[in-house]
What does this fold into?
Amino acid sequence: MRRSSLLVIALVALAHAAIYIAYQRPDWSSTSAWTDQAGYDRLGTGLATTGQFTRFPDSPVFVPEVIRTPGYPAFVAAIYLVFGTGNHMAVAVAQAFVFAAICCLVAILARRAAGDRAAIAAGVLAALYAPMPYFGALVLTELWTAFVAIAAMVVCVAAAHGGRTRNFFLAGVLFSATALVRPAFYLMPFFLSIAVPLLVRSQRSGASLKNWATLALAAALTLAPWFTYNYVTLGQFTMAPAGGVGRGLWEGSWQGQWPGRIQAELIDLATNIADRDQLTARVKDVAQRTRMPAEPMLQYVNEWRDIRLIWESPTDPMERARARVLADGAYLNHALSNIGRDPIGHITRRLTRGLFILWAAEVPIRYSDINTTPVWVIRVLWALQVALLVAAALGAIWLARHDRWLDAVLLTLPLIYVTGVHVPLLCEARQSLPD
It folds into this structure.
């Protein structure tokens, strides 16, 4: 593959990223748009200024972070060390180059699987795929996760074809580095180490099994310091003490009960109205206007408020961190209760609405504009993503039919993994962005 082709792909990606930086900039200072940005900014600032992974660097007692993992804050901190803390523009520009690198990696991955023409097509499609520069203009994990995950896959595919143990070891390190950015990926290397030999006959020899075991071992060794850190600071062997399945399962137990805009309105009411009687009256107004039952809406906003009070009530930062861990258990208990009342309905919603949202519902429109966007525009964006999924399925079939079974399996398994991890929980389209 010519370097000129990669250069063109990179330039298209950079131009696309520049457009989204200009487009997203009005929302950078908004307190309601992508509130997760504030958390990553604080963690990045803490790492850059003190070297400690905490939201409270000025606290006399070290307060460990209980929600986020350190992979992305470390990336943000590196940028802040060079360009100054709180420099959103520097992060956005750096992520524009990360986006260009992703597109080149996609082309390299496609070239190994299907040749030069497929590589150029894949690279250009990646460069034109709007959700990536959309998130690249924000201080959020999505683009960095995609970069590390795709780099891990490039090395993994090269290792599977070449059989070099050192490449398997490096792939294991990179997969766990992905998990340190987004914890949902921490089982990925172990899943691949088992699934690939089971599905691909050529990977069942003694040497190949040793190599896949090496990948799993490297992944475990890479994760060990983080698990140890969590045990020492909060007494749990976990990827993120309060970032467990509790909240995701609770959110998933409600997802699909109402259209997204109605649920967003309920969250806004629960967030901004402190008085319970006033909140109840406003929720009943929503129910009457939408002609939907008020009781489930009231249950939702009250659960939302009650659980958040568990960690919002403490004023001491350390007590608040411990309370956030307890809150995840409360989320889990409520989720199981909600699911138990209608298990068939829950499963149906997860396999229909949840699955669709995960893979085809990204809307790369500025947060402050999305609720005024015409429905037909959103549906066109959905249709384009469905078409992309169909193309991916056809590509996997083509690889399998042309005796590229190893490539077909390697490139399909991440999609299966992401689906299996996320569909039981709250589904957001950005969760599938690395794939």
